[in-house]
UniProtKB/TrEMBL annotation:
<dbReference type="InterPro" id="IPR008538">
    <property type="entry name" value="Uma2"/>
</dbReference>
<protein>
    <recommendedName>
        <fullName>Putative restriction endonuclease domain-containing protein</fullName>
    </recommendedName>
</protein>
<feature type="domain" description="Putative restriction endonuclease">
    <location>
        <begin position="25"/>
        <end position="178"/>
    </location>
</feature>
<dbReference type="Pfam" id="PF05685">
    <property type="entry name" value="Uma2"/>
</dbReference>
<dbReference type="InterPro" id="IPR012296">
    <property type="entry name" value="Nuclease_put_TT1808"/>
</dbReference>
<dbReference type="InterPro" id="IPR011335">
    <property type="entry name" value="Restrct_endonuc-II-like"/>
</dbReference>
């Protein structure tokens, strides 16, 4: 038995549109199901690499922990994004959203309470340097950066438009916001 193909190539950003930087959030929402994960950076489609197993597992375990421990007015989410502007979007690994949560792929920054990025070799520059600036500019109150091997969580709070380190740990993360948190790091370690 052989797999049949339609002869069509998988979706990829158009090189001319990339140079023009004129993709919009609406167009990203209309991508076919087989398209890769895409973020927008000033109208340029950035294809986000598929995360490796430990990256996914850490994110999934964090999603589960937040789902089990967050107050009822907050919902944990993965594989959805934030519409930063008409020409910018980001897809954090894990988010906490204010309820009620509409059934959509992109959320406005004011509905997002927390974004968490699991750092991988291919994402470290964006996760450590670029994304925190963008999330802060959008007014998202909390940003977590999760380093791997060993797992270590750095939790930041938005203060006067920039993120300040609130706590970090490789053993137990203790925070009072966005809710009272005592997160044993082993609970999110693959």
């Amino acid at each position: 038995m052989t797999a049949e193909t339609s002869g069509e190539l998988a979706w990829a950003p158009n090189p001319v549109r990339q140079r023009l930087g004129n993709y919009t959030v609406e167009e990203i929402l209309d991508l076919p199901d087989e398209a890769p994960r895409v973020e927008l950076d000033n109208g340029v489609a950035v294809v986000v690499p598929k995360p490796a197993y430990h990256h996914q597992e850490t994110g999934n375990l964090l999603w589960l922990w937040l789902r089990q421990h967050a107050p009822a007015e907050l919902a944990s989410a993965t594989d959805v994004g934030v519409a930063m502007s008409f020409a910018d979007s980001l897809e954090p690994d894990v988010m906490l959203l204010r309820r009620p949560v509409p059934n959509r792929h992109l959320f406005q920054p004011d509905q997002v309470v927390l974004v968490a990025e699991v750092v991988s070799p291919s994402t470290k520059r964006r996760d450590r340097l670029e994304k925190p600036v963008l999330y802060a500019r959008a007014g998202i109150p909390h940003y977590w950066r999760i380093e791997q091997e060993p797992v270590h969580v750095f939790a930041y709070d938005l203060v006067n438009g920039t993120y300040e380190l609130a706590a970090d740990s490789a053993e137990e993360l203790v925070l009072s916001a966005p809710f009272d948190i005592k997160l044993p790091i082993r609970d999110i370690t693959p």
